[in-house]
Design goal:
38 residues; mainly alpha; 82% helix
């Protein structure tokens, strides 16, 4: 499910990219919660 996030983490060189990746992961989990409730 989150395979693309793992690949992204492997290629991280910048802390800003890490924050961006974490934001995307949190957003994806949040959207999954909403999707299950509807």
């Amino acid at each position: 499910m989150f395979l693309h996030d793992s690949v992204l983490y492997l290629n991280l060189e910048d802390h800003q990219l890490e924050l961006y990746a974490n934001t995307l992961l949190n957003l994806e989990m949040f959207m999954d919660l909403i999707w299950r409730r509807s």
